[in-house]
Hints:
Layout: E1 2-7, H1 11-20, E2 27-34, H2 37-47, E3 54-59, H3 65-75, E4 79-82, H4 89-99, E5 102-105, H5 117-130, H6 139-142, H7 145-151, E6 154-157, H8 165-176, E7 180-190, H9 204-212, E8 215-220, E9 226-231, E10 237-242, E11 246-252, H10 256-264, E12 270-276, H11 279-290, E13 299-301, E14 304-306, H12 308-315, E15 329-340, E16 343-354, H13 355-362, H14 366-383, E17 391-394, H15 400-409, E18 415-417
Parallel strand pairs: 1-2, 1-4, 2-3, 4-5, 5-6, 6-17, 7-12
Antiparallel strand pairs: 7-15, 8-9, 10-11, 11-12, 13-14, 15-16, 16-18
Amino acid sequence: MARALIIGCGAVATVAIKKCCTASEVFSEICIASRHRENCEKLAQELRPNTKTVITTAAVDADKAENVSKLIKEYKPDLVMNIALPYQDLAIMDACLECGVNYMDTANYEPENVDDPEWRKVYDKRCKEQGFSAYFDYSWQWAYKEKFEKAGLTALLGSGFDPGVSQAYCAYALKHQFDTIEEIDILDCNGGDHGYKFATNFNPEINLREVSAPGSYWDTDANGKGHWVEIPAMSIKREYVFDEVGKKDMYLLHHEEIESLAQNIPGVKRIRFFMTFGQSYLDHMRCLEDVGMLSTQPIKFQGQEIVPIQFLKALLPDPASLGPRTVGKTNIGCIFKGTKDGKPKTYYLYNVCDHQECYKELGSQAIAYTTGVPAMCGAMMVLTGKWNKPGVHTVEEFDPDPFMEALTKYGLPWKENFNPVLVD
Length: 424
Ligand code: NDP
């Protein structure tokens, strides 16, 4: 019996909220809050007749910690589930600290305005020291470790699929399948087709920023020292035949969980992340980038200030509306190379999710489903005390077993392959 404040009511949050309502024994009360309360209320009205979970709604602009603190003080939750955008991570963490509440999210912090000189100073230093230039990284949230520890509060970062389940798979492989893991390839394949020439499967701004950035991976030099290798965006391409999906082109991207896995998987030498893209998506993205439509820098247009990428977002299909049109499957998982009992071993752990099955069950496409279910399961781990560890932690730092059991129960069972085709 617990009370969760859920900030965000978009594509991912909607799935998480619907799943919370099927687990009223844990989520006995939830409050759904975002800037547009009417969206939260609409969802609440749809759910109330069929759940024992008591649902309330609120309006909050989570860009400011004081707004979130005010709501937390009124609602008194046991956990704040941040399923808004990465821009709000720090403000919500500040509010949780002020009010003494546990925190979780699905994506690590990045600023909305990457031209902010204060942020830029820290960013430029990190690019030089670390060797990767993505706008997002864990340093901002890891800086809260001591504060959360001292307050006796748990902050669970990145409890979506990737990040999230991908790290639970790593923890599971290490616990049950390997003595040491040397190489990890995270493969994210969306074999779904929504019929549009161009649309993003989750928030377009976050999605396009991520995939238009330079790629990078973790590697180890001859002296055993781990380091980042950065490459131009989309410059490493591989072909892979995915179970239940078929052959797809995939590209090496920078991804946030590489950063924490490099620290938390002892002895790991190489970690890469690949995502599949169709040619049409890449052509559109390149063109939009070339004409400046992916810029976050405000411009004046007919006397009004507009941010190009936000304008683009208004033109693109709402990711939440892709559900009825999307057919096909996702296949997301990790291929491991390492040793067990002194012998070399390879192992592939993955989930296959069908877009239309997700739509039938919850009215959402599989990308929102595969993120929203782990968000709810991660919250459940914290609320039931299975993942209570004061500090700021990523998923691989916790026992994967109860989480993976919950994933199976709530719709994301895993599959194994003990002789996978490796990525060269
Ligand atoms: P959407 O754009 O669909 O939804 C975002 C929600 O956040 C909206 O309900 C919006 O409501 C709310 N919101 C935005 N700004 C604020 C604010 N200032 N204060 C309060 N609420 C706000 O995004 P998605 O559902 O697609 O994505 C949600 C999160 O999931 C993102 O952080 C994304 O990066 C992450 N994600 C993680 C994945 C993973 O595997 N780990 C995969 C996919 C996504 P309103 O406008 O009313 O405020």
